[in-house]
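Here is one chain, start to finish.
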Amino acid sequence: SHALVAAMSGIRCILSSSNDDNMVGTMAINGNLWLGTVLNALLLSFAGYGSGSGEVGTSNGHMKLLDLLDEAVPGVGTYEDFNTIDWVREKSKDRDRHREITSKSKLSTWALLQSVSDAFSGWLLMLLVGLSSGALAGLIDITAHWMTDLKEGVCLSGFWFNHEHCCWTSNETTFQERDRCPEWKSWAELMVGTPEGASAYIINYLLYVCWALLFSLLAVFLVRAFAPYACGSGIPEIKTILSGFIIRGYLGKWTLLIKTITLVLAVSSGLSLGKEGPMVHVSCCCANILCHLFTKYRKNEAKRREVLSAAAAVGVSVAFGAPIGGVLFSLEEVSYYFPLKTLWRSFFAALVGAFTLRSINPFGNSRLVLFYVEFHAPWHLLELVPFVMLGIFGGLWGALFIRTNIAWCRRRKTTRLGRFPVVEVLLVTLATAVLAFPNEYTRMSGSELISELFNDCSLLDSSKLCDYAERDPAINGSESGNELPDRPAGSGLYTALWQLVLALIFKVVITIFTFGIKVPSGLFIPSMAVGAIAGRLLGVGMEQLAYYHPEWSMLKGWCTPGADCITPGLYAMVGATACLGGVTRMTVSLVVIMFELTGGLEYIVPLMAATMTSKWVADALGREGIYEAHIRLNGYPFLEAKEEYAHQTLAMDVMRPRRSDPALAVLTQDDMTVGQVEELVAATEYSGYPVVVSHDSLRLVGFVLRRDLLIFIENARKHQEGVVSASLVLFGDHPPPQPANGPPPVKLRSILDLCPFTVTDHTPMEIVVDIFRKMGLRQSLVTHNGRLLGIITKKDILKHMAQMANRDPDSILFN
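Its structure:
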């Protein structure tokens, strides 16, 4: 424009002066007239105005200056800690960004390449998440296996070998004693020279307890000192974050580092916990950190949560070696928003994670988990009765565990016990180690125990669970190949059964006190161990029943003498599924995970029967799974999609302000000053404020977030000349005329949400709750005949639902 040319000419004339005094004199003579002309000309030319309008004033110049600065105000559009994101706004931002990229891609080849790169970035991010999660899972598996064996002894040929790997290369290992080789020495052999005797037993016992205490002490110290968020399972918090809640640092680099290290230490200490749940947390940490490499995920909280949903699938994939089960787990159990695009990317990321873990081969058996098994004997229809019994047991155990564990965790939060987390961890570890060592089934790790219980006995097995007495081939048929017919239990099997009964009691009790302590602690393996023990006991009982009473009507025509009728390992697997389902209330994903573990299609029906039975029984005793119960215990604002709203209340019954409360805090669109706005914000703690035309009409204009308001005003004070407390704050599109000598106004229309979600005061609350769930709202304004009455936030709904369920409404802690 002509104004821009004239302005630039004036600048060149002044800058070309060789004498500094002349320059100062010229600027002093022209004064503010010259500066105002230049700035106005520049701004109007950027804004697309011509120079001939003749309506350029000082105040308009200031307003244009602020509009120019609005686009780069740091912090606007972000959220404070322990707040809920605005899903609608985030999705709208992403649509606008995508629309802009698409329109620019038609203009040039470089813009087209940028568009292709933007579309491909999601798949690249999934590849990186899968690779990093698979690599970390392999590292955790190898290290935990080695440190678990370190409690019992050391490999002389290389201290970095665990017990199994140490004896692989030995030429002196027999099949009956495959775990004994000259290269592996117990601590008693190194100290007193003999593995047998009372002194050797005591030394091994003491060192087992000392190693366990050392590992747990290191774990709880690292968590306390460097990353308090690294404790626990992490799945309740992941569910809350995926619903839109902000917890700064929960998925940060320090949490990832400390969680990885302390997870190995906690599992190696022998505590009754698993690594599968925390692996979901580790994968989500990897995803959150990698999101910062891509702009569209770094700057959009909703897009980032799509990546975290896929990362949760990767966590289960690398923990169980079940990629499809991981995707279904994310869809069924943890995700809040799961579009079809996220399903495809979750599948790809889970595939990459499983492939990476398979390439590392942490267990040396070409499998992704330690307890992979394959059953070959078919099951009979009548076996559904004991399978359903295992489902009932799993449901009862799940309900019992949730109630007792939540009661204990609540006691920890409300008493002095919570002030001494290190002492609690050490006491639980001491009790676990002292009671676990005498029993070989509690001494071994949870994964090894499940592998032992899932095992289908063959002719080559030397386990006590496969110690059967010899049978007379002339009477009951002959054995062929590697298949074993049902046989009478031997003395070793009876001893193993008694040890399993004691192990079951021990696991049931100690897991209640272990889950929730201040170290990384998963629940999958302990729950599966409890169910596997119960299932193996029932399976052996059914096997002996079939052997001693083949003439019973229920067994006739099914179990002939000399046949392999009952597979106790299958009962253990069904029991593990039932107990895990009773605790977590998983259904489809759990069956698929267990199916991928066994590789047998024919066992899906028993697994489904046990899973549904356990869920029905557990739901009859309590509607919440363990993760939902811990979310409610911690007071997170999580609106459970599975919970039905069955009360007949209206929006006016829940909204604030109530009749006894002060009037609703609102901002007006064009007659409040900066000082008045700052006073209102300082006097209240709300996360946002409705903007109305005036206090008299209360006609709604929009909604502005507290954080955006404060950041924008602070930015205006720093970068816009003349802004003082008396400056007007303008939200309107057509501001009123300003006095020529008054301070410049601050235009805030760019941060105003012009389409806030509203409901009328007579809207049923069941509809309001459904809207909040499906749209991910953080608040909704309530109107009556177009006049603003109040506001409903997610916290108000949760408090109201708690009150209607006769629970403490103040248990909802966060806004």
